[in-house]
Every structure is written in C-alpha cells, then in structure tokens.
Design goal:
It contains twelve helices and eight strands. By secondary structure, it is an alpha/beta fold. It has a single domain, classed as TIM Barrel (Alpha-Beta Barrel). The protein starts with 7 loop residues before the first strand and ends with a helix.
C-alpha cells in the first residue's frame, strides 16, 4: 500500500499587487473557490506558486494566511520549499512546522547536479530533521537531476517519511518505471501520464487545470480510480486537445509555469492578477482574453463529450 492516500493535489498561486505584495483577499478567494469546486488537498510554493522567488518574510506571511484559511475547514495544508541549500530548506520547513504544517513538498538544490551520495544526504538531512512530518519530492528537470524508480526505491528504504513524488512528465516510460520500482510511494502524475500510472496500480493526480476545468479533472481522476480505461483515455485526450487549442502559441514561448497557471486560475473565474515576481515575464490581459475566447470555442466543440460518462456520474 502507498504511504499516503490517493487524492487530487492542486496548487494555489499567489496574487501580487504592483508593489509585489500578496493580495490577501484574492488569495483567500482562490482557496475558497477551489474548495467550493471540491478540491481540499491544496499546496503553495511549487514552481507555479513562485516558491523559488519569495523572501523568507513573504514565505512566513503567506504560510500564516494559508494555514489560517485551511484551518477554517480543517483541510491539511501542504507547503512547498525550494532553496539552493539544505540549510535554507530546513529553516523554512521549521517555520511552517511550528505553525502546524506536517506535509511538505521539496525539490533538490539546483546549483550543481547531485550525485547519488549527495541525493541521499539531502533527503536524510531534511526528512530526518522532522520525523513526524511527511514529504513529497517534486521531481523536475530544472534541478538537473531527475530521479528514477530505482533511485526512489533506494531512498524509500532509508527514509520512511518520504511518502510521495510529483512527476508530471515522462509519459508512459516514467510512469511505468516509478510504479514498478516504488509502488509504496504515492506518485502524483499530471493529466498526461496519470492514465499510464493507473494501469500499474494506485496513483494520484496533480491537477494543472482544476480551477478552470473542475468537472473534467474529477472525471479523469474517477475514471482512473475505477479502472475505466475508456473514460480514462477519453479525458486524457480531452486535456491534451484543450491544452493545445487554448494555449497553443503561448506554449511555444516557454514562460515559467506560473505565467500559464495564473491564466488558468483567471479563466476559472477568479480575478487573479497575471503579474509574476521579478525577473519572470507574465502574460498580458490581451493574452488572457484570447485564451478565454479559445476556451469557450473549445467547450462548444466538445460539449457532448464533456457531458457524458464520468462527468455525468459526478453530477448525479
């Protein structure tokens, strides 16, 4: 059995004003909107949440608001911690831990490529410092070292509170590798590779589109949970087609993740500012208007498909 429960995990993006201060009311509206749409496993400070760009002061302020708001519904907060040193990562985890957070998302320090010994040292130094906390590893190419299924097997045997991974790329090959070598970890896959992971056992969904496509997101997750391959791949294709229909030419620009995710949150009905912290470039209001027009056109073309199968079951 996996070390943590199967679920849909959703990122909360941080709204900034023109002085690069968090707009607290909009942030709270975002959390409540996601919960109203049926998503209670929320996290802050992944790449989309600009966890790489914040100061310690901003980190503490935003964690405080996040924990207070989720405490209103007793939903479990997950906090991402990105840093260039183990010491910085441990320091930030320590603050959130004192605030009551027990679930963390960590990625490897990225200044230099870590070898096997250094990878093991990092996980032991971080995870063993907080033995009553649980850790999800965010496995991404930006840190220059993507861990394999065999890497996770070695780490899981030595670090009992490493409970999950986040792997949104790599397709069938990576999903099969991870599920085959480390099935006791809960692997969070993206819309592209979640269906592949489901064919090897229990896995979870890291949703990029929950704010904008809540029912389709839940339908994809349900189909995988029920082992309904027809529905599962129908919804996988739906997300693929939607992604390229709506964001097509913007994808080729290769902007940082948060630029796209803030468009998604705004298209979900929240007045999310598109602004990113320096030096990263956001999209414009004109880009948003064009994406919204494309999304509406896409929904018109696919209305019959959206209203069938698992989505109809969820609406009952």
């Amino acid at each position: 059995m996996a070390r943590c429960r199967k679920t849909i995990l959703v990122s909360c993006e941080i709204p900034w004003n023109d002085r690069n201060e968090m707009i607290e009311s909009t942030f709270i509206d975002e959390i409540r909107s996601l919960q109203d749409k049926g998503f209670n496993d929320l996290y802050i400070f992944g790449t989309a949440g600009e966890g790489y760009a914040i100061t310690n002061e901003k980190f503490k302020d935003i964690v405080e608001v996040f924990c207070i708001e989720l405490g209103r519904t007793k939903a479990p907060p997950m906090v991402g911690v990105i840093g260039l040193s183990t010491a910085t990562i441990v320091e930030r985890i320590g603050f959130a831990f004192e605030r009551g957070v027990r679930s963390f998302q960590i990625s490897l320090p990225s200044w230099g490529i870590l070898n096997d010994t250094e990878v093991e040292s990092f996980f032991k130094d971080v995870c063993e410092t907080f033995p009553s906390a649980s850790f999800l590893h965010y496995n991404l190419p930006r840190v220059k070292r993507v861990l394999s299924g065999k890497d996770y097997r070695r780490l899981a045997d030595k670090v009992p509170n490493l409970v999950a991974t986040k792997n949104t790329g790599g397709g069938l090959q990576r999903a099969a590798d991870l599920m085959s070598h480390a099935p006791d970890l809960q692997h969070f896959f993206g819309e592209e590779n979640y269906p592949h992971g489901c064919h090897y056992g229990e896995c979870s969904l890291l949703s990029s589109f929950a704010a904008m496509e809540p029912e389709a997101t839940k339908a994809l997750f349900l189909a995988g949970s029920e082992g309904n391959s027809g529905e599962l791949y129908k919804w996988q294709h739906y997300f693929h087609d939607m992604l390229f229909s709506v964001f097509g030419d913007l994808l080729a620009m290769g902007r940082i993740d948060g630029a796209y995710d803030k468009l998604i949150v705004r298209m979900g009905g929240l007045q999310m500012p598109l602004r990113l912290l320096s030096p990263y470039q956001s999209f414009t209001d004109a880009d948003y208007e064009e994406c919204l027009r494309r999304l509406e056109a896409f929904h018109l073309r696919t209305a019959a498909r959206v209203g069938s199968g698992s989505a109809a079951k969820l609406a009952e």
